[in-house]
Design goal:
about 150 residues, 2,3-Dihydroxybiphenyl 1,2-Dioxygenase, domain 1, 4-stranded mixed β-sheet, elongated
């Protein structure tokens, strides 16, 4: 068990959120839930998403998520990017920019190809800047366009 576990405070959508997240990513499961009484709503939960342990609580309307916190999803292929992106959109997420998308519960996700990280770690600052400039023009990240910018720099 990791010493540090992200803890998410939802308004009242915890049950819907954990069902959605654990259905979306492999290596995900709901580990424990606590309810108010036998039939009451879920008040807290422990779950994994993509192998990462999370804890969460229904804390009421006082708690809101912001873009200052996001979850980063490493994607190996464009098909993987498209799959997650489309599943989020179908569930009511709002696309932002640069591969960022805010889901229907208010959490912001970064759907990012591993290839992007490789390209921006290049030693040539012109290539890195070209990739960054291309990324800034995108909503959903497109690997072939990032590579095109890299090779044309």
């Amino acid at each position: 068990m990791s010493k540090i576990t992200p803890f998410l405070m939802f308004n009242d959508q915890l049950e819907s959120a954990i069902k959605f997240y654990t259905s979306l990513f492999p290596d995900s499961e709901i580990k424990n839930i606590a309810k108010t009484g036998n039939e009451g709503p879920i008040t807290s939960a422990e779950f994994t998403i993509g192998g990462q342990l999370f804890m969460a609580y229904n804390g009421g309307p006082y708690f809101q998520f912001s873009n200052g916190f996001s979850l980063f999803v490493h994607c190996e292929t464009q098909d993987e990017i498209d799959k997650y992106w489309n599943q989020f959109i179908s569930a009511g997420a709002k696309p932002l920019q640069c591969g960022w998308i805010t889901d229907q519960f208010g959490i912001t996700w970064q759907i990012v190809p591993t290839r992007f990280m490789e390209l921006i770690n290049d030693n040539d600052p012109k290539k890195v800047q070209a990739v960054m400039d291309a990324m800034m023009q995108m909503i959903k990240l497109e690997i072939h366009l990032l590579e095109k910018a890299y090779h044309e720099a």
